[in-house]
Design goal:
single chain; alpha/beta; 5-stranded mixed β-barrel; globular
């Protein structure tokens, strides 16, 4: 099924999405990769507030290339999500609504997705130049010293993703293999 959603994502919206759905996201999302996730965890460990409200928000595991002339951002393809798995359950428990990346997730992340009625989307790896065309604006909001791994606030229009793990724990990576074997 094809759906259009507005970011941030409510739990109600997340519950309606099913593994395998094609989704077009419009609104505000944030980027964060390994180094930014480590810093966010250190921030939480110190009892401090994160640099943006996590509640209902979407984190895109992406580190862009430099912007070309007249563009807000360069290539914007997804990073392998499992690299953030050790940090993700805590962020989901704080209200993170969705993540965008590529690849499988750990059982701890899947359990946290279900527990918090969130969703994991996949963006198409290798299509970063095309995905960047959906990004209207990009602004570094935290950890500027991390360069491409800094946290950015993105405004996106019709960013194409696929629901891989839905709020019920249905996992497209598993169900697609079973379907293929038939």
């Amino acid at each position: 099924m094809e759906r259009e959603i507005q970011a941030p994502v409510t739990r109600e919206e997340a519950r309606q999405l099913k593994a395998g759905d094609y989704v077009y996201i419009t609104g505000t999302i944030y980027t964060a990769r390994d180094a930014a996730h480590k810093r966010m965890q250190e921030t939480l460990d110190r009892g401090e507030e994160l640099p943006f409200s996590i509640k209902g928000n979407v984190i895109y595991y992406m580190g862009p290339s430099p912007a070309r002339e007249n563009r807000p951002i360069g290539s914007a393809g997804p990073t392998t999500a499992s690299r953030m798995d050790r940090y993700t359950p805590a962020l989901l428990d704080l209200g993170l609504g969705a993540m965008i990346g590529k690849g499988k997730r750990s059982q701890a992340v899947i359990d946290a997705i279900v527990r918090n009625e969130a969703v994991y989307f996949a963006a198409i790896g290798g299509a970063g130049a095309l995905l960047s065309k959906c990004i209207v604006s990009s602004e570094v909001i935290a950890y500027e010293d991390l360069g491409t791994e800094a946290i950015r606030r993105l405004e996106v229009e019709n960013l194409p993703v696929v629901v891989v793990i839905d709020s019920q724990g249905n996992n497209l990576y598993e169900t697609a293999v079973l379907q293929y074997r038939k």
